[in-house]
Amino acid sequence: MSIPAQASGEPDAEPDGPEGRLRRFARIWSRAIFPLTATSLTRPEFEEHLLPLARELNGILHARPFDASPAQRVGAALIEAHCTDPDALSSTLGVVDSYLVLYCGGNGPDTLSTEDGRARCARIQHTLAAGFTGALRERTLAEQEAIARSALTARSDAEQALHATEARFRAVFKDAAIGIGVADLDGNILEINDTLTKMFGGLEHHVRSHKVNEWVHPEDSPQVWKYYDELVRGERDHYRVEKAYYRNDGTVLWTNLTVSLLRDSEGRPEYQLALMEDTTERRLLNLRLRYEATHDALTGLPNRTLFFERLEKALAAQEGIRFGLCYLDLDGFKAINDSLGHAAGDRLLVEVADRLQSCATAPGEMVARLGGDEFVALTTGPDTADEVDELAGRILNALASPIRLDGRELTVRGSIGVVEGPSGERSAAEVLRSADITMYRAKAAGGNRYQLADAEADARAITRHGLTTALPAALDRGEFFIEYQPLVHLGDGTVHGAEALVRWCHPQHGVLGPDRFIPLAEHTGLIVPLGRWVLEESVRQANFWQERHSDGGPLRINVNLSPTQLHHPRLVAETVDVLERSGLEPGALCLEVTESALIGADDDLLKPLRQLAEMGVDIALDDFGTGYSNLANLRRLPVSVLKLDRSFTRGMQQHPADPVDLKIVEGIVSLAHSLELAVTVEGVETGAQAEQLRRLGCDTAQGWYYARPGAPDRIHSLLLADAV
Amino acid sequence: MERPAWAPQGIDISVPSVSRMYDFYLGGSHNFEVDREAARKAMEFLPGLPKIMQANRAFMRRTVRYAVDIGIDQFLDIGSGIPTFGNVHEVAQAANPGAKVAYVDHDPVAVAHSQAVLEGNDRAVIAAADLRRPKEILAHPEITGLLDLDRPVALLLVAVLHFVEDADDPRAAVAELRESLAPGSLIVLTHASYEGIPLPKEEAAGTVGVYKNIRNPLIMRSREEIGQFFEGYEMVEPGLVSMPEWRPDTPQAPEQEDPYAFSGFGGVGRKA
To answer: Are residues A319 and A239 in the same domain?
Structure first.
């Protein structure tokens, strides 16, 4: 049977034609091996893929002369189509064996004999199998080589990256400004950088010769080794502490130490990594700053800050602990400072500090300087009741022997306020306040002694400290006011003028007299603005009176000048300014200066007073007779009025009057008049006194007999009474 | 301790790799004995693993063609593994020679192999990065150098998310990728699940144990959990289904498919 040759590539639509038979063979083949392939082709696609291979097998089957070798390509093509499963080969062979001759045997130009067909089919199978396995072998080898090469590439890439990483780490490790060390979990040091070696003194051997857990230092806090143990046990991943080490020369290295646990890839603890920052210098600086912040630069004693820390600690101590406090203020230190100068005063304080220091050497005792000439000694313990007495005694004793200064022997005395008690009851501020008050009681009792605190006395006392700190704000808030006490002509009983007396209306303590706060204002310098305010206010008031009573003759205003004001360089200028601005005649102003303020006054001090006197301002010598009363000196002073101290008038309140007092007053008046000084007497309380003083020749008087100090309008009404 | 990004990962080919196991399932020889040993063990529990992998490849092929058909010409394939055959760039570039494909894998051997395979193809790149750090992927110079992320991209997450544990928050990672893609982009995703496996769960769980032992846990998720990866995207018909059910090329009776091909789910989402 002869079948015409087909045009290649032209599908035969006839199912029983050669092309249809070929397709059926491909479909059977595809069904057999599709489940065994890993191809992502669909079944129809896969079948299309097999069709050319089937055609090739058909061609081989019919080729003349017969040559089976092209069947190798068919086997290889299966591998290319990802039919790498060995079962794909056996299934293919099975399909070829059963169906190739059946479907394709009749497709050639000559019909094959059955025997020939079978023989050729067997040869084709052998060759196809060889082609399949050969291609599979090639493919397997190629893929193995490819994956091995990829693994090698990946590994060398990783190694390069690792190397770069290590180089970076190495650079960090080597050049770091902090010390870095790695140790195993037994504490053996494996690696340290140069910075760490340098921190430890420069000898690598010194560092490496010790295990990490041998670097114990007495100042180690308990956490240091607790954390260490937790870390090496794997219970803690890192910790940070302050830790001291010994350098190889025995000096101390202080560090901020951070230790981290390094684990392996399975998470098991492997190494410990320490990062150390050298904080030795910073620590020393801190210690020095702390010392400077807590010690007095002049005497080297602990200062107020440190004293308060200790006192607060003592007061916060557990039950059964007591404290004793001596608050010492030197008697008359200001006079020494004023007369010998500050440098000498400082040397004196240093000597006093040394002596005090030697008084408080027992454990629990300390001496501190609070400032100026104020010192404190503190003792703590169970028996301070007795100890503090002894301490105060020792302090007074230590001050008893004179201090040599510039060839002079100075006797320094002190007043001590003693507070003693149990901890936990009072605050530090309360204790110090009590000591301060008590010290003033000791001072008031004559000084050179100590007194024990007394709760009642404390309660009554208004502390100097409290008033001092309240003063500046008081002036700003207008808490001061002025009362006026009339000065009366003894001759005719008319009002001659008034003395301005400053008062402080304290928000808590009520009205305070000048004796309570003028010394404080003097001490702090507030006296200058306060004095100026008093002068302005008084002059303004006097001028107001003048305008209302121009017919009543000159009305004077007496204003007190404190020693500090006397020294103030702008005294004259400011006084002139006040007078000019108010328009008051200089002659209507009398400035009162205490006799003691002028003791030993040189020309420099007197010059401003002279200038004022030359302008017509009267200068009165206040409290005359209480001080040194250098009568010879009176001629030098630019004064025009003597104000006799009230102690002279007190002697005249008796009846009959003390004849000695009478004689003295008469003598003074006579002396004053001969120096052309007017005489004013203070403290006149009865008519008999007034009459007597008038007879003795006194010019003016003031006192309760006439009027107590009062508001300006009271003077106003007295003036009106005069005028009538 | 977190490994710094610039610290290299160690290469240890004595540890089985999921990429090389995948290659073995697909009849390839890009693998070592450790990989084959692990794969054979996994197949003791799930003999149909090669069929599942084959279904994944077929799904991937159909979805890539779908993406090209709707006009997408940029592909980002994360977790690409060892490119055995029928890869995204082969399929995509066969359909559209201008298509660009960026592969991402975190296995250094897979990356090195991909580099060798892609040599000379200037429209396909491989980037070493990790799905768990999507920011690094989106900013990777190889990727930004090839793809224009302001235009639609088909993001392929084929057979990869089931290797990301919940502790690494795969939902957040996918969300970040989803949000940074341009409107019109696709997410193509397949995921392992106990659902659809023609075996009792207890038996199939042995495979999970194998992957756990090779320190590359296989996380089975439910259909609902897998669906959450598409949040905010419209599901392309027929939705999240067994892989052979997703737009088959030829209508054929399911019984013609190997039953294992129906394990797990695949789907495509589109950003409006």
So the answer is: no
Instruction: Report mean pLDDT in 10-residue bins for chain A, 724 residues.
Output: 40 69 92 83 85 93 90 93 90 93 79 86 94 94 92 87 84 88 92 92 87 90 92 93 92 93 86 93 89 90 92 85 92 80 89 92 90 92 87 92 85 92 87 89 87 77 73 90 92 88 87 86 87 94 80 79 88 92 91 82 85 93 75 81 84 74 86 90 87 90 88 74 52
- Whether B30 has its CB under 8 Å from any CB of chain A: the answer is yes
Residues of A in contact with B82 (CB under 8 A): 147
In a domain, B45, yes or no: yes
Question: Measuring CA to CA, which residue among B156, B149, B145 is closest to residue B66?
Answer: B156
| Residue of chain A nearest B19, judged by CA positions | A147
Alpha helices in A525-602 (DSSP H): 527-548, 563-567, 571-582
Q: Tell me how close the Cα of B95 comes to any Cα of chain A, in angstroms.
A: 14
- Which of A263, A284, A305 lies at the terminal end of a domain, its last residue? A284
Mutation for testing the B interface, residue in A30, A40, A261 having most B CBs under 10 Å: A40
Instruction: Count how many domains chain B has.
Output: 1
For residue A71, count CB atoms less than 10 angstroms from its CB and return exposed for 0-12, middle for 13-18, buried for 19 or more: buried
Same domain for A443 and A304: yes
**Would the CB atoms of A153 and B112 count as touching at under 8 Å?**
yes
Identify whether A656 is preceded by a cis peptide bond (ω within 30 of 0): yes
- Domain with residue B78: its CATH number is 3.40.50.150
**pTM > 0.80: yes or no:** no
Q: Which of A38, A43, A158 sits opposite B10 (nearest CB)?
A: A158
pLDDT tens, residue by residue, B203-238: 888 888 888 888 888 999 999 999 999 999 999 999
Separation CA A379–CA A664 (nearest Å) = 54
Radius of gyration of chain B (CA): 18
Cβ–Cβ gap B8/A44 under 8 Å: no
- Residue A698 belongs to a domain with what CATH number? 3.20.20.450
The reply to whether residue B113 touches residue A139, judged by beta carbons under 8 angstroms, is no
Contacts of B12 in chain A (CB under 8 A): none
Domain count along chain A = 4
